[in-house]
Amino acid sequence: MACGEVFLSAADYQQIIIRRGQVTDTKTSLNKGYSVRVVEAGKAGFAYSTDLSNAGINRTIDHAQKVLPYGDSEAANMLPTRKIQPWQKSLHNFDRRIKDLTVADLINFAGDIEEAAGRVHKSIKDPESVGISAGTEETYLVSTHIPLLKETFSYIGGNANCIGDDGRQRAAASYMGYACDLDDFQPATIGSETARRASVLLGATTITSGRREIVLDPYVSCQFLGFMAPLFSAENGFKAKSPLTGKLGQSMASPILTIVDDGLMPGRIASSYYDAEGVPTRKTVVVDKGTFQSYLYNTGYALKLGAESTGNASRVSYKTPPAISPSNLYILPGKTDKNGLVKLIDHGLYVLNVMGMHTANPVSGDFSLGVQGILIEKGELTKPVKGITLTGNLIDFLNNISSIADDPQFFLLNAHIGAPTIHVSDVMVGG
User: Among 212, 193, 172, 199, which residue's Cα sits nearest to residue 389?
Assistant: First the structure.
């Protein structure tokens, strides 16, 4: 017997880009559309459209039914049945004021970023570029097994790129910040932090190669966790596209490392009551004290692997069927403050920026990254360094984590990722 699902999304989006004080680009859009999934006898048909007339809806359903026979037959092609959400406290992830922002408002926020950046250091004139984006989205889902569900989201974000120039050397840096409540958005922090990162790298030199202790800035810790995120997908585990394939229940990292995915975190961009299939979201401990505890599952791969969906089905847009991705994925913070962590290191490197994370191998876990940072000597941050590399394997890297600070930060890096400052005791650093 066939069953079906309809998913509708209406996203209102606007963006501005400023380069050296001048508005160079503005975008506004209202992207509205829907998709239809039909499942029967282990096969799935999918179609999407922007035509919401009765005739258009009928054509979309008809197309999904027509392509149904040509799909691969898999037991995992199924729609979830209704599950009761255990609680309904507010997620604080929708602010109506964001929907009412104008392009002029976004330009004012960009001005706040520029002004804050200019106050940091005389080497920073104006940011090279500033971007501000804001939007709201409403989604609706109904299926044979699930009554109509509605979710609303909002977000506002900014990013900046700065170049420090002291007359002898130039140094570049970037930074970003996002929020789903207007009161939590801090454009001045984005500007000042971008400029600070550029200014502290002025006068950077190279260092000799060797194995060193390193400290990852939270922004860099988040980039490493973002690289790791696909490893936790049940699909990649099933297809042997992860170094964690077959290692559920086994140690994979330092016993002080715990990684959590939580779709119900209040005030976070990726929070929602239900995932893209209508399954209630939840908190999932992925790595517990160094042990690989759980994949992230959607309905289909949970069935394939004899597990239960963790509520991690997601859609890039109404034009794509549900896939698997994290919601709010983060490393549990420790109890040491950042300064105390640095003071533990006699001779090491504070990593402020990494380049080439996209080149890391997600199947083997091998990486070779360009880095910039600051030398740590006798527990103090001293001189900036550049033109160096970090090389290694992710699993070895995770097992060498020695301490974790208490200063988590969240960034939008393909997924919504959070991590604190992290101390790794033994890494190959090439000069």
Answer: 212
Residue spans of alpha helices (H) in 293-429: 299-304, 338-343, 394-399
**H/E segment holding residue 347:** strand 347-355
Helix intervals (H) in 102-186:
103-118
Contact 388, 379 (CB under 8 A): no
Encoded tokens for 165: 């120039």
Distances (CA, A) of 121 to 165, 199, 226: 10, 7, 31
Short-list 135, 176, 144, CA closest to 13: 135
Q: What is the pLDDT of residues 203-217, one digit of tens each?
A: 999 988 999 999 999
Q: Kindly report the pTM of this predicted structure.
A: 0.94
Pairing verdict, β 415-419 and 328-331: parallel
Which residues 6+ apart lie within 8 Å of 260 measured at CB?
A: 283, 284, 285, 286, 329, 330, 332
Cα separation of 1 and 227, whole Å? 41
The ranges of the chain annotated as CATH 3.30.2290.10 are: 3-200
Mean pLDDT for 165-187 is 93
Instruction: Give the CATH architecture of domain 3-200.
Output: 2-Layer Sandwich (3.30)
User: Average pLDDT in the 353-364 region?
Assistant: 89
